[in-house]
Amino acid sequence: MRHVSRCALLTALLICGSAGIVFADESIKAKDASEAARAGDTSWPMYNLNYEARRYVNLDSINTRNVSHLKESCRAQVGEASSFESDLLLADGRLYATTSLATLAVNPSNCQIIWKSIYHPDRREVAPNNRGVAFAEGRVFRGTDDCSVLALSAETGETLWKISPCDPNAGEYFSAAPIAWNGLVFIGIAGGDFGVQGRMFAFDAKSGKKIWEFHLIPKKGEFGADTWKGDSADSGGGGTWTTYTLDPVSGEIFVPVGNAAPDFDTEPRFGADLFTNCLVVLDARDGSLKWWYQIEIHDDKDLDVSAAPMLFDMNDGRQAVTLASKGGLLYTIDRRSHKLMYRTPITTILSPAAAVTPQGTKTCPGIFRGVEWNGPALDSINHSIVIGAVDWCSILTRSPNTAHQKGEAYLGGTYKMLSDPPATGWVTSLDQQSGRIRWRFHADGPVVSGILPTGGGLVFFGDMAGNFYALDSADGTVRFKTNTGGAMAGGVISYRLGGDQYLAVTSGNVSRFDWGASGTPQIILYRQQPVASTATRENGSPGAGATASPNSDRGKLVYSRVCSSCHGPSGEGLTGPALKGIGGRMSIGELAAWVMNPLVPPGDQRQAVMPRLYPSALSEQEIFDVAAFVGQF
User: Fold this and answer.
1) Is 171 left (phi over 0), alpha (psi -120 to 50) or beta?
2) What domain count does the chain have?
3) One-character DSSP codes across 54-75
4) Is there a domain that residue 311 lies in?
5) First vs last C-alpha separation in the chain
6) Which of 54, 122, 298, 524 has fewest C-beta within 10 Å?
7) What whole-number distance in Å separates Cα of residue 238 and Cα of residue 432?
8) Tens digits of per-residue pLDDT, 516-556?
9) Contact predicate 201/155, CB 8 Å
């Protein structure tokens, strides 16, 4: 269910042609394009990084040893008070993001806005939110709130084509981030809560011509039409509002489909109500149905399959797809047999089978709950699936005999969000083979942002309380936390540029007032900091906080005073572990980084973390001196 507030008025913008395009500086644009492809640079070319939606990046310059020193580099002010649920793309040297009306290209190293294109709707705006763009062959593609699809020049933001294949007066609109493949652009309509008839489209990327259309709510005579009662399919819902996953080898596109309408009253409907609450798998070339998996039959709680699924291989080589729902469950399915492998709860679940009544039914998770528009990610280091979720209960009330009115919300009842307990969130790591929970982290606010596992042994994400986190992917320990000043509801990505690792995040979602979101839309960059970088310390050189080269004689004095009571006078080990031979395993820089950010050895949960001595007890100079001494053991 999508409940959004109206956007505030746009700031004053320079209008150019049919869309407003603002260029911050022509020299920035030219420089950005000319430096787009330096050796060693990486990109993030689609919503979930790759077609399989795994989101894992094998970058480790920012890692468990130095992430505590992560610092903000810069911010790009989006300049519009609106929802900010967009993911971020990095392609051809530019970051791309969207709001309900704006599409932006941003310099990925200094946050300067290269161009901003403002869309001016010429029809009704249904629900002002948008989740991002697709990129292909120098173009970016997006949907709009008045049910149009645009192709823009990636270099200038100029509109190259526009098509309007659906009817906003019926409650139809595009909020999903499209994907592009093999000369096609794929996107489906949102608006299930308005009683639309869900549809999925493929358009020619060059011209915008419609190539195929698939009815997510079957028309009379089509397969699945007999799962609807009477003419209830005419207002059946089945919107798709996030993004999609694709197997480029088999040519299959995986479409998450939302709830049936009316949301809380099943009486007008019949039974399975295909293809609502389904993962629908289509042939991407012609739109024909390959197979489907339905997670909920006869739904009366708005249990969308919302976020894009993820494709991965099991340890035994079987191809699998994993997905999650607003019902708070993660499902993993065998792609060959279409059988369920496992189903695991990932947030608080209460009364999932209780029918919604006219007197009201408490259910957990509630309406704005479970897994929303960002789905699972693959932690390749630990062979696990990591996913965020919302923990928030509500009371649903059924209103029987609610008539459908074209273009109006068709809920069949009402809802009330509960404040006791308050809304929070979870991040859960599950073994990819068994679905067994490895660890869980309870966040301060609902978790709807992208999840980012990295080769540095970290999982990055944000919450709706505005916090940006890095967890140790081995055990879920918090390694970094900072407040961005705005609710985090969109992209969290990482890339290498000019030799440094960057993190780019969105902050300041203001449309979901039900969550008390705060801040104004901004893109924030974090950059690998030399003072915390193991690359600058592996030769024993201290960072900016040290004034002299490491000295083992000074370090011996500090060790005797601070360290020997735990590790023994000669490093033999007492209440702390033995340090004998550690100099052969770790450099001075690595030892220093370890002392500044103590870690539990992977897999050893019995051992306590060493007390954090820096910067309160020991200076950086003292730590490097100690490292030089300990390295002689």
Assistant:
1) left
2) 2
3) ---B---SS-TTTGGG-EEEEE
4) yes
5) 61
6) 122
7) 29
8) 556 789 999 999 865 433 333 334 444 545 557 888 888 88
9) no
C-alpha distances in Å from residue 74, one per residue of 92, 111, 515, 534, 632: 20, 6, 26, 23, 41
The 10s digit of each residue's pLDDT in 228-263 is 999 999 999 999 999 999 999 999 999 999 999 999
User: Angle 588-596/620-630 helices, nearest 10 degrees?
Assistant: 130
Using CA atoms, how far apart are residues 284 and 212, in angstroms rounded to an integer?
9
Which residues, including other chains, have CB under 8 Å from residue 231's CB and lie 6 or more apart?
none
How far CA 256 is from CA of 192, 343, 403, in Å, comes to: 13, 17, 27
- Does residue 13 fall inside a structural domain? no
Phi, psi of 159 (to 5 degrees): -75, 125
Distances (CA, A) of 85 to 133, 171, 247: 12, 20, 25
Per the structure block, which two tokens stand in for 383?
Answer: 């062979």
> Please, which residues have CB within 8 angstroms of residue 343's CB and are 6 or more apart in sequence?
329, 330, 331, 332, 435
Both structure tokens of 64: 């468990």
Domain with 108 in it: what CATH number?
Answer: 2.140.10.10
Q: Which residue has the tokens 């489907």?
A: 292
Residue range of the domain that includes 625? 537-630
Reference 178, options 163, 192, 168, 167; nearest CA is 163
Are 87 and 451 contacting, i.e. CB atoms less than 8 angstroms apart?
no
Residues whose CB is less than 8 angstroms from the CB of residue 494 and which lie 6 or more positions away in sequence, other chains included: 44, 57, 59, 62, 452, 454, 460, 501, 502, 503, 504
Are 189 and 203 contacting, i.e. CB atoms less than 8 angstroms apart? no
In 457-571, which ranges are E strands? 458-462, 467-472, 478-483, 492-497, 500-507, 522-527
Position 561 confidence tier, pLDDT thresholds 50, 70, 90: low
* Averaged pLDDT for residues 292-310: 94
Residue 146 has pLDDT above 80, yes or no: yes
Alpha-carbon gap, residue 419 to 350, rounded angstroms = 16
Domain at 574, CATH number: 1.10.760.10
Q: With beta carbons less than 8 A apart as the criterion, state whether 7 and 81 touch.
A: yes
> Cβ distance 562 to 618 under 8 Å?
yes
Last residue of a domain, one of 494, 516, 534: 534
Write out the H or E segment, with its range, that includes residue 229: none
193 close to 304: Cβ distance less than 8 angstroms: no
Give Rg (Cα) of the chain: 26
The answer to whether the CB of 178 falls within 8 A of the CB of 143 is yes
3-state class of 149 per DSSP? strand
DSSP letters along 329-344, please? Answer: EEEEEETTT--EEEEE
DSSP 583: G
Domain assignment of residue 102, yes or no: yes
Tokens standing for 356?
Answer: 């919604």
Cα(75)–Cα(524) distance, rounded to whole angstroms? 4
